[in-house]
């Protein structure tokens, strides 16, 4: 499974570099616009748009390969090793944090709490 993932990743990188190179080599449609308004002799505003040439078809093929590789890598990353998608992410399920139980004697058992003042039984009975 690791071999397939690496193969798809290499294919994706090569197709990305091919797209970059093919786009940079192609002639832009807006490049003839200055010639049509100025001294150039252009047939239309943005130049003649005939059928797609070799560079544009190659760019479309490289883009298709790139997107297919991207979908394949996304599928492989979610279904790696038969784990459920919720268990394979960076945030995994943990046990809930439970607060410690407070003793029955109240605030006197809590560390750092002020001691409770309890009146003696004889003083309470004399009032």
TrEMBL record:
Membrane is among the record's keywords: yes
Keywords: Cell membrane, Membrane, Protein transport, Translocation, Transmembrane, Transmembrane helix, Transport
Transmembrane feature ranges: 54-76
Protein localization: Cell membrane
Classification via InterPro entries: SecG (IPR004692)
Protein origin, superkingdom: Bacteria
Bilayer disposition of the protein: Multi-pass membrane protein
Pfam families: SecG (PF03840)
PANTHER family linked to this entry: PROTEIN-EXPORT MEMBRANE PROTEIN SECG
Function in brief: Involved in protein export. Participates in an early event of protein translocation.
Protein family (similarity comment): Belongs to the SecG family.
Protein name: Protein-export membrane protein SecG
Name of the gene: secG
């Amino acid at each position: 499974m690791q071999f397939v993932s690496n193969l798809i990743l290499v294919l994706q990188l090569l197709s990305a570099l091919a797209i970059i190179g093919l786009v940079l080599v192609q002639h832009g449609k807006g490049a003839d616009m200055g010639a049509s308004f100025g001294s150039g002799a252009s047939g239309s505003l943005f130049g003649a748009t005939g059928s797609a040439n070799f560079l544009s078809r190659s760019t479309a093929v490289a883009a298709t390969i790139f997107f297919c590789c991207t979908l394949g890598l996304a599928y492989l990353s979610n279904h790696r090793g038969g784990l459920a998608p919720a268990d394979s992410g960076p945030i995994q399920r943990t046990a809930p944090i439970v607060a410690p139980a407070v003793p029955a004697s109240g605030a006197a058992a809590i560390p750092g709490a002020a001691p409770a003042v309890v009146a003696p039984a004889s003083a309470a009975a004399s009032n």
